[in-house]
Specification:
Chain lengths: 328, 303
């Protein structure tokens, strides 16, 4: 039964309409990227790409823009976030998937996911008025006791500092790292676990010998997605890091990050300064892009490696990929 | 032979004693389980503290006039009223609503294309890749994108609708990827039966595929809305900052996150209290959206 050309018209329209919508997204992203590059170009040509990223001098009034203090600030805070956030997130995921009593599973999962629902600016507000002042005496104690270790000890502890920013970031990346780790852990084939238990392993030995080795790439991938978040996080960090554009001398001193500088200075920036901020955005963009791409490779590798399909009974296929994409 | 529960201490004279777990291994097991439980509880401490402080400080700031007056910008004299957060609430609701009106049709449309057509394949791969790229972009960069395209590009100033566009860019990947997952769950048998009955492709999509996937997609949409409502960074250089209430999306527009960010740096206690009150308002709105999303997800067959 052939349809008349007129009756096929809505079909064609829908197909081409949707295709052009998809194409529009691609064009838009390429356009944004290209414009960002054009706007950033004066800053790169003034100092050179190397000079911009590794120049240790961010001086707005002297029109000198070297982003090293900011790059280092971003790296320090993100590294702290990973160091503190990932072990807790993975341990929580292990508890929830392997040990948790069934009745507690749903409430605990929801509570951990709620951490992701708190807006960045609220973390900043809580961080600067509660966390940072409460932590200061403890930080001072550590700095005094460990004064022989460079970077940690010695200096004056300020209320806003690298450590507080790292801690806030650790809390903020916890839900996503934990969610990805949980998703990955559910892909462990039950026969691996049952085999371990059948051979007489305790619960912990089963986790250590069957679950963790199987999930390692996925956990690394989840941690890297968290890293991507931590690098790009802006407002909370801006509020608790102190905004001092020098290379940080110690852990409990004030610093600055790439994203925080943009949030703080863009409003009044003109000329070369504005271009430098665009250049920073470009550096940030490329950095997060690389980290995210690597993370996806790791996570997807775990998902592919599983012999049983990721689809459990009553579960959505592709949940893992979706969780990675949505970042929930 | 009865099964030996794991961790059973050896019973003297039992033939199975040699299979029992040594006390050292048992202790390690118990310690490790304890550590994992402790880590889970540690993860929950910040949530408890944040919610506690929000409620204690935020409720103190709430009053009828807090929701019905605009912020005044007076911060130096205690006798002057600093006003409430009316303009911020209006701005957040209006900008997020417009952002959803943009991001939901586009996001669902792209997801439909990916699932229902997705040809040529290289193009579908490219679209998926770029959508994933968008997920990883820091939110402040979205604000700069809009700034480049609509503020510098047109030589005009900040406006509410530009803030909405920045938020919609942020929502787009979340909506698209979650809609894609749900659309893939619609059984092919449903599509095939409709086609076999002689329905045209577009009719199959609008009358069979979309209604089946609706509730599942709603969950993703609500989570995206909740995420957009809490964002500050994309609004800073797109929607501007103002104290005035306005419903005109062509004007500068205030928003709850912007208001909190402005107030947080103030040395005046009453202004900081306004930030707590605004934060409690914002978190309440977001939690309600999350709750609705979860309830819908529980009802829907695919979610």
């Amino acid at each position: 039964m052939e349809r008349s050309p007129l009756a096929r018209l809505p079909d064609r329209a829908l197909k081409y309409g949707l295709t052009s919508l998809a194409a529009l997204i691609l064009i838009l992203i390429v356009y944004f990227f290209e414009r960002l590059f054009v706007e950033a170009h004066p800053a790169f040509s003034a100092a050179g790409l190397f000079g911009f990223v590794f120049g240790n001098n961010w001086n707005v009034s002297a029109e000198h823009f070297g982003a090293l203090p900011l790059v280092v600030g971003t790296l320090i805070t993100s590294a702290l976030a990973l160091l503190m956030g990932v072990p807790i997130a993975v341990a929580a995921a292990l508890y929830l998937t392997e040990l948790c009593p069934r009745r507690l599973l749903a409430p605990l999962t929801i509570l951990i996911e709620l951490l992701a629902a708190v807006p960045s600016v609220v973390y900043g507000l809580w961080g600067i008025f509660f966390l940072a002042p409460k932590l200061q005496p403890a930080e001072q104690w550590v700095a005094d006791r460990l004064s022989f270790i460079p970077f940690i000890g010695g200096g004056v502890v300020t209320i806003p500092n690298y450590f507080v920013a790292g801690l806030i970031l650790a809390i903020m990346i916890l839900p996503i790292v934990s969610a990805i780790a949980r998703e990955v852990m559910t892909t462990v084939p039950p026969d691996h676990k049952e085999a371990a238990l059948g051979l007489g392993a305790t619960r912990w030995e089963m986790v250590r010998m069957a679950v963790i080795p199987y999930c390692r790439p996925g956990i690394v991938g989840g941690a890297m997605l968290g890293l991507g978040r931590a690098i790009g996080e802006t407002i909370a960090v801006t509020i608790v890091i102190g905004n001092a554009p020098q290379l940080g001398r110690h852990l409990f001193g004030q610093g600055y990050t790439l994203a925080a500088v943009i949030a703080n200075e863009f409003g009044e920036a003109t000329g070369l300064h504005r271009s430098a901020l665009f250049a920073e955005a470009l550096v940030l963009f490329v950095l997060t892009l690389l980290v995210n791409a690597l993370a996806r490779i790791f996570v997807v590798r775990t998902a592919r490696g599983s012999r049983t399909p990721i689809v459990g009974p009553g579960e959505a296929p592709g949940d893992l990929q979706a969780a990675v994409a949505v970042g929930a | 032979m009865s099964a030996l529960p794991i961790g059973t201490p050896p019973i003297p004279g039992d033939r199975l004693a040699r299979f029992a777990v040594s006390s050292r291994r048992r202790r390690t097991d118990r310690a490790a389980r304890g550590l994992l439980l402790a880590a889970t509880l540690i993860a929950l401490i910040p949530l408890g503290l944040i919610l506690y402080y929000l409620i204690v400080k935020g409720l103190g700031a709430w009053s009828w006039s807090f929701f019905t007056t605009d912020p005044t910008g007076n911060t130096f004299f205690k006798s002057e009223s600093i006003g409430g957060i009316k303009s911020a609430i209006i701005g957040t609701i209006e900008m997020v609503a417009l952002a959803s009106l943009i991001a939901v049709p586009v996001g669902v449309g792209v997801a439909l294309w990916l699932v229902e057509y997705g040809q040529p394949r290289w193009f579908a791969h490219a679209v998926r890749f770029f959508i994933d790229v968008l997920t990883g972009v820091p939110s402040i960069v979205f604000g700069l994108f809009i700034y480049i395209a609509l503020v510098v590009g047109t030589g005009s100033s900040y406006a509410g609708y530009k803030g909405s566009l920045a938020l919609s860019l942020l929502m787009l990947p979340v909506v698209t990827r979650s809609a894609e997952v749900v659309l893939q769950l619609v059984p092919n048998a449903l599509r095939e039966s409709a086609l076999a009955l002689g329905a045209a492709r577009w009719k199959v999509i609008f009358r069979v595929v979309l209604p089946t996937a609706l509730t599942g997609m709603l969950t993703g949409v609500l989570l995206a809305v909740a995420r957009a409502a809490g964002e500050t960074a994309p609004l800073l250089f797109a929607a501007g900052a103002t104290n005035k209430s306005t419903t005109d999306l062509g004007q500068f527009m205030n928003a709850l996150p912007t208001q909190i960010y402005k107030d947080v740096t103030s040395p005046t206690e009453s202004v900081v209290n306004r930030a707590w009150g605004a934060a409690l308002t914002l978190v309440t709105m977001i939690l309600i959206l999350n709750l609705i999303a979860r309830l819908i997800a529980r009802r829907s067959r695919f979610a």
